[in-house]
Amino acid sequence: MSDTIxxxxxxxxxxAIGILRLSGPDSIAVVDRVFTPSHGAxxxxxxxxxxxxxxxxxxxxxxxxxxxxxVSRAPHSYTGEDTAxxxxxxxxxxxxxxxxxxxxxxxxxxxxxxxxxxxxxxGKLDLTRTEAIADLIHAESPAAVRQAAGQLxxxxxxxxxxxxxxxxxxxxxxxxxxxxxxxxxxxxxAAEISAVLNQAAAKLDRMAGSYRRGRALMEGIPCAIVGxxxxxxxxxxxxxxxxxxxxxxxxxxxxxxxxxxxLNLGSILLKLIDTAGLHAADDQVEQLGIERSRAAVDQAExxxxxxxxxxxxxxxxxxxxxxxLSAPRCVIILNKDDLPAPDQAQLPELPRNTPxxxxxxLTGDGVDQLELAMENLFPEDPGVxxxxxxxxxxQAQAAGRARQAVARAAQALDAGMSPDAVLTDVEQALTALxxxxxxxxxxxxxxxxxxxxxVGK
Length: 457
Description:
Number of domains: 3
Shape: flat
CATH architecture of the largest domain: 3-Layer(aba) Sandwich
Order of helices and strands: EEHEEEEHEHHHHHHEHEEHEHEEHHHH
CATH superfamily of the largest domain: P-loop containing nucleotide triphosphate hydrolases
Structural class: alpha/beta
């Protein structure tokens, strides 16, 4: 990291503000070569984090823009290096000219995610905070924003550190007893060791269990809408989205393939999938669509079974109910509540706590009750702090390996095995936790993480 990097840190679209960012040992000197304050000394003589108004110039001295500049000296900056920013008007052409001026003055083009990579390598961020930045950039719901912000604030890192330190203390005490037998060091009793391991296992279990919700927050809960033709699935799909995404006609079998969109329903991000109506079909295209509907249900975390509440149940409705109730979570929707309901009872006996919502997808009445049912199906775990959820497979796998190693250590202890056997498993647990935070660094893993970042971040 001996060179100085520069990049445009805002989207290249016309906007009120566009930012040019630099990091590296010559950042402030580069800014001095292209930026002339309107009054007073150059940026190299200015205090940190002070906005200065002046002219941004090209290599020939012509003014590109009148803008604001600020500098932050190492180690008190985002990357831990000398950094600088030029806050310009958001003209793509002006920003590109400004970036060329920075290159002419001695900077080079930053790679995707290179600013944050430098912050990680400089010890400013651990991997969980690094991933939180990417999650925050890509967050699509208020809950996802709060989770990413909490993780960036250190909630997950703090939870991991508690486990790490308890196991480190255990390991250190073991080594002290083994390596210095002549010293007056009180050995741990088996009950004390077991208590530490059980406490670590419980915390890791809760952490690993948070992955399902964390992934759903960031990626969306896979949610399939199923039902027989003309029950109102596509109308509901469009009503939830707020615009006509799926084709709706009175003709049965209009939807012949799955249609997917992401949307926020309350605080929940859904990957909503409209499916072909379930019925016996002779048409090969319709049959393929129905097969895709069933495949979508197999992969769904939540299924919305849409029934025509104005008509008696049909065998196709019963098929949709059976399919939906086989999913991890299911909501039964009696649609067309704006029409008269049949006299006979509509629904068979359902599993306990299966939500049933009456609504009209056509008018929108009752959709708020569906939102409430969703919230109840995916409650927040009060035992997990905001920001302490695992949100990606890398984190979940590392936490899982740590949990398995702690379990092996506890089993070795219970079996009366030698301290060396217990130590080996505790060390493996620490290694896995180190991978989780970045204490133990693998270049291929970090490279994959920084692939999610844009240039300029």
